[in-house]
Design goal:
- The protein has about 375 residues and is α/β, with parallel strands linked by helices.
- The protein folds into 2 domains: about 80 residues, Urease, subunit C, domain 1, CATH 2.30.40.10; about 290 residues, TIM Barrel (Alpha-Beta Barrel), CATH 3.20.20.
- It starts with a strand and ends with a strand.
Length: about 375
Amino acid sequence: MSLTYIVNGKIILPDAAIEGRALAFDTESGKIVGLVDAVPAGADIIDAEGKLVAAGLVDIHIHGYLGEDTCDASVTGLRKMAYGVAKNGVTAFLPTTMTVAKEEIVAALNAVRSVKAESAVWDGAEILGVHAEGPFINPSKKGAQAEENILTPDADFIIENSDIIKSVTLAPEMDAGHKCIKALAQRSDVLVSMGHTDASFDEAVSAVRDGVRHATHLFNAMSALAHRNPGVVGAALSCEGVSVEIIADTFHINPGLYSLVERLKGDKTVLITDCTRAGGMPDGEYDLGGQPIFLKGIECRLADGTIAGSVLKLNEAVRNVLRHTDLSLSTVFNMASLNPARAIGMDGSIGSLEAGKDADIIIADENINIVRTIKKGRTIYVA
């Protein structure tokens, strides 16, 4: 065992922010040992200098970054994304496909599959699997996804690739009899999420009974909450077993809703980026799923004005929620670490600073600028 101690930090645990103690982790096993009151003389230390010490962030919905996109099926591109998001405090992520031609999705899955093992030891965020956003969606709520590539929900395709697919977004109303949803619930561990959907409230609730456990970018590209037709939004908020994604860039959702959603969903509130290849890039024209998108400031849109993903960084999402709510540090950091890890069934090994879990750790200043990222006990980024 070779211990390193992070000292002089405000340590963000799932239910408290602790000062005056040190966080110990083993660089050999890459695991967290726990909190200690005293550090042995001569020990290896990292001085947090009064900054925040939190679990590495987990992004379960990110299409691209720094000019790269998951659907490019480029190993080099995936590595660039992984190294890039590590600077934003992300230690694990799900590269996310979208509604492109099926052969492009297969190529993307194969590219991710080929580097998944390597990603555990490279100097970037670890790839946990893929989030397949589509192609099983409703054309009327396609958003920035190409209608010609939309397909009928196909459980066999997802199950055949369930070694790499961790979650799938589909529209329940396009799944006759919920055959796909039921099959995925019964025959796989894939997280089934409802998104890009115009389902009614009753249809969405029925889908939850049949196996839907998540809602993709809540409020966006789904039937809205109204007092006589609560829609998918109403179902996602009222069904206890459903976790929900929030794009907290202050553009996709009015910041006044952040607290409301958290009060309703608690630890099932998940911050995501939905970032495109335009993330980390200057304003200009890019592409998403073969369609041109235009970046201006924090807004990504198609030529017709349709919102097309984001350029959000996950540490910025944490900052935005903290600035626009009175939620605690623990609650907000959980939304970007423990809650997403739990949604995809990975909270036993990542997502919080608890003994025995991977030593995925970030140090951030009061504005949530990342100054150090540690993955499995190894520093992979220092500002």
